[in-house]
Amino acid sequence: MTQTTTKLEELSNKLVNQIQNLHDKTGQPGTLKDFQNFTQVERFSDALWEHGLQSIDSSNFLEELNKKLQNFTKEINQPKTKKIIPSTTGQKKLEGKTSHNNIVQYMEKVIEAGINKVQDEKDLEVLRLLGENMADIVKKILRSINEATPSLKEYPIRTLVKDTEEFGKYIKNRNLRTNQIRKFLDAVNRIKLELKLEIKKKNIDEDQSQALLLSEVPKIDVEFILLKQKLAYASARQKAVKPLKEVMEAAIDKVKNSEDFERFFQLVESIIAYHKAAGGE
Fold first, then answer.
1. What is the pLDDT of residues 61-93, one digit of tens each?
2. Could you tell me where the beta strands, DSSP code E, fall in 1-90?
3. How many whole angstroms separate alpha carbon 143 and alpha carbon 148?
4. Is 5 left (phi over 0), alpha (psi -120 to 50) or beta?
5. Strand locations in the chain, DSSP E?
6. CA nearest 35: which of 116, 151, 89?
7. Which of 58, 202, 221, 261 lies at a CB distance of 3.0 to 4.6 Å from 135, suitable for a disulfide?
8. Which residue(s) pair with 75 in the sheet?
């Protein structure tokens, strides 16, 4: 058993045991809506991506889970149907393209344990959240950005590169094209140039870890904040832009100075590079 297998096995088993032993507020055996330990789910998700979960496999996994949720919702809403009691192997398992992927199987094991604890729509909502928190690359990269404290420069570059490799593939598979976000990319490049000129004008020595606050240059600060507007417009026209919009908005909120902007630029540059490497236009 490899180190990867051991860690994922341990984390998935821990979640399965927690789900199997759920209790409600009265101490009686509970259902999935009694599950609250999403911090553990996020830790498991980080391990999955760290050990090679692919965006195509995670997308297939979520697609199959969504089909299962739709079927369960129909069953719940049938007349006189009050709850779901999975009774066959077929009901308990995801029947999808990802079943032969070793890493995905660890997620499937958690979901199958969750299915056995589903009785109503509230349970189904928690099942959906379980799947998304494990497998959604957008949630993973948003988590990395939000954990960069106090600002974006604390986003570890190795983590950034690994996150963006899968995110670039993901947005390519959603048919995002760079011409759909051309105004955004042009504005980012323009801000980079303007910021560089401003740093030179103020005689700030970048090698001495000095950073220029964006608030000290109102024109650049306004242009930077208005990047959100460009993404909102592009997203309204093309749904494929939405995941990038979510990620960029979170990153923009973490940029306070020129060092943060440099990490932001690296984030954008890396996403686009991996998007093109995956065959994106």
1. 999 999 989 888 877 776 654 444 444 334 445
2. none
3. 9
4. alpha
5. none
6. 116
7. 58
8. none
